[in-house]
Amino acid sequence: MDLGIHQRVAVVTGGSGGIGAGIVRCLAREGARVAVGYHTDRTAAEHLVQSMDSGPEACMVFHDDLCAPQTIQRAVEAVLERWGRVDILVACAWQSAGWPQPDVLPESTSAEAWQVQLRANVEGSACVVQAVLPAMRAAGWGRIVLVSSGAAEDGAPGLEHYAAAKAALHGISRSLARSVGPAGILVNTVMPSFVATERHRHSIPPQVFERIAAQTPTRRLATEEDVAQLVAFLVSDANRAITGSEVRVSGGMRM
Length: 255
Known about the structure:
The chain is α/β, with parallel strands linked by helices. The chain has nine helices and seven strands. Strands 3-2-1-4-5-6-7 form a seven-stranded parallel β-sheet, with helices on both faces. Helix 1 crosses helix 9. The protein is globular and about 50 Å long.
């Protein structure tokens, strides 16, 4: 299927590793020009760009700090200066709260920890959306995907602040879909459950992967590529009617 995103311009925050890097690779394979966001590891973002067949000329890297809105605005301005448009936004950057700790009492979570999660995951995502909307409105076409988490609906003991922040993205997405739909802009939320990223494989024992996989009807964990393929469709011209929706990528785990 021709997704119709050849030469479209995509901004992917949190694109230097994990699920974000998988999305970058997938969009680049489809012929999109991709701006790859990184928070701390510029080297990883540059290596990713250099490793892709599309070549450095079809990609650029930018610094994204979800707690510093000025970095987002400067990044979007740089993309517009280079390519003159922004057609696609995938907001994949996130502020980690660590692995769930069921033995941690909710009342022990500090106000500062709550503020960090809400500011980065909610306000940061809203900031990057606001930055790209004028260009999408001017073009009369746009696709936005906010990357949430299965924790937003399933919950995660010890991660109440993180789950709350990710759940907020669902409300943003639904309201935004109503606001910008008449301008030709579609907005959706993707909810990966447990994805076996390289980061997870380095920090989580193999038996945990096996136990979670056994809980799914597919008997396998979702991969970065599984998430990326879904995102590629949602941000494409082939998607003409899906907006304001939350789509899970979990191998049927919740079912």
